[in-house]
Here is the input.
Amino acid sequence: MDISHDGPELAPRLQGADNNLSGILRGRDTSSVAARFVGAGWRSRSSSWEGYEVGTDWCEVELDPVGRRETLLNGVVDPDGLDALAALLTRFGVSFQLELCDESGRTVREVFGGTQPRSPGDPGGAGG
Here is the structure.
């Protein structure tokens, strides 16, 4: 994938903030997800052999493969941008589960797309 240094830098108020976003993306390989972010105007750089860091002014995340078509996502997002991120992932054609945490690490919001949410006790669910 082409690496793009174009795209806005993370807003100063979010730089140095603790990670508040985690999730999993299913249905596309990590490099194609990163390419879609670049196509949407985000900047991207390689962060490992197969991982990428992608970002814009309101969100910056690491994308790391955990399978052929699954990607772990973690980083920082402006809480007001969570719905915009979910809409973007929906346009990318991936199923996803995102968790937004507060300063103490407690989950304050979950967003699911592409599949029905599973309860924590279900196999493959948030706790399984």
Observations:
- The CA atoms of residues 11 and 57 lie 5 Å apart.
- The radius of gyration is 14 Å.
- DSSP finds two helices and seven strands in the chain.
- The chain has one domain: 21-113.
